[in-house]
Specification:
The structure holds two protein chains of two kinds. By secondary structure, chain A is of the alpha/beta class. Helix content of chain A is about 35%, strand content about 25%. In chain A, strand 7, helix 6 and strand 8 form a beta-alpha-beta unit. The two termini of chain A are about 30 Å apart. By secondary structure, chain B is mainly α. Chain B is globular. Chain B is built from 14 helices and four strands. About 5% of the residues of chain B have low confidence. Classes of the chains: A alpha/beta, B mainly alpha.
Chain lengths: ~250, ~325
Amino acid sequence: MPEVALRAEGLEKRFGGLRAVREVSLDVHIGEIHAVIGPNGAGKSTLINLLSGELGATAGSILLRERPVGRLGVHHRALAGIGRSYQKTTIFLPFTVLENVRLAAQARTRGGLRLFGSPERDADLNANARAALDQVGLSGRAEVAAGLLSHGEQRQLEIAMVLATEPKIILLDEPLAGMGTSEAKAMIELIRSLKEGRAVLIVEHDMDAVFSLADRLTVMADGRVIASGNPEEVRRHPAVRAAYLGEEGPP
Amino acid sequence: MARGALTSRLVAVALVAVAVALPFFAATYYLQLASKVLLMGLLAMALNLVVGFGGLVSLCHAAFFGLAGYVLALTSPPYEAASIWITLPAAVGAAALAALVIGALSLRTRGIYFIMVTLAFGEMLFFFFHDTRVAGGSDGTFIYFKPLVAIGSLPLLDLEKARTFYWVVLGLTLAGIALLVVIVRSPFGHALAASRVNERRARSLGFPIYRIRLAAFVISGALAGLSGYFAAAQFGYVAPQMLGWHVSATALVMVVLGGMRTVTGPLLGAAILMGLEEFLRASTEHWKLLEGLIIIGLVLAFPDGVRQLFDMALKPHAFPALRRMRRPAVPREAGNA
């Protein structure tokens, strides 16, 4: 059994009377891509926000490699090893691509908040940043302002930034949203490469992509987990067919 | 680029040389005016660390400025000069402490709420000195002697001399610029800028946004206090108006006028604003009207601050408005959070 990077147990989130996430438990393993799917309003984005710390859970626990992180704020969880992308690309638009990634590398460095010295001249930071850009294939665009990149490149950049923080688990919130076919294809390959030595949790609507990428799936509806398992098991699961995939069945 | 950087360095050296030599050819009146400009410029540059680089519009910096002045007034013995070694650290420390407390509370808010909360704290301090009998209430109080700069009984500098006072203030201003440049270029400065541009992203990368902003706020408040201490010493007088929102707003105008994205822009803004007032006041009774119109004109002509004139002249290829004609515009910093 591969190592568990992130474990959620009995996660619950209430917004007033609405139970957006109810008693969700899941494990994300190192070396695996774990996809969370479900119809709109199933609570997938809420789940990601609970895991990254943007929302506080009403109940339940979150363990990052057996360390409870459920009470930590966003930046502490980031430092503990949770990296994430957002549904809407969230990068530093006016800064260059390299500056964006360098900031990411800086965030987790000792002395990352020193009042003297210069990150621009910091060889380690630059090397880490360049390595992350290499991995996503943006090396050639290092000096371009992030705001001038195409949509697909901006999403690549966001992933490079997450990589530069050296996370143990990466949470991706609809990484393929708004992408053209060729862009999406490249992104799928990039996502596949992320699981090497890390755990990846992905929320995505593109079912072809999900079934080609995921090693494990969790299906949510109405805030609840209605099925989980490997793609084959999920595909055959009657509750999934009824609640989510409809009459046609999955591809 | 290298040539532009060299030229701008030469211009800076020339400006500093002229500033240092000023006492040799300027009358005392203008020397005092120049000291005032430098001190207001220091206040505006301090404010700009949080406004321009941190993206936090504070309306309470006059409180730090005035508080330091009041500390000097209150710690000065009535019939002799106070020692600068005691009163200066006390004044700057008090300003930093006030910034720590006010910042810790107001930085829990964002945007317009932050502006309002800082304004409220600033006014609170204003009314504290206005409505109580501390240091003369609404009348304020005098500081009869400038602080004493001496080791033991050996006087080092005589601040009563306008010329010496000016040089000391000039030295502090240059030190303030150097400090701010180092901070802005440091990892901390980059993190501060990152939290301005996209708070959510900065946070999820692992930056402790609240602590970064609070640290910037305290540094900024301490520098404002430094300026206020010498301003009080120069005027020989402190009054509650020194802490009022009017001074905060004036400093903010200097920041916007000079340029928010550079360290020295606000100093230029102070020079322009105060020079303008000096000139207009002598020429017409309705100088406020003219001043307002000129400020509006300058801000419209130089939305990124008058400081950009220098960049335009020295590094035309790096000038965004000129570049924009050839390339698609870089999206402005509204952020995408």
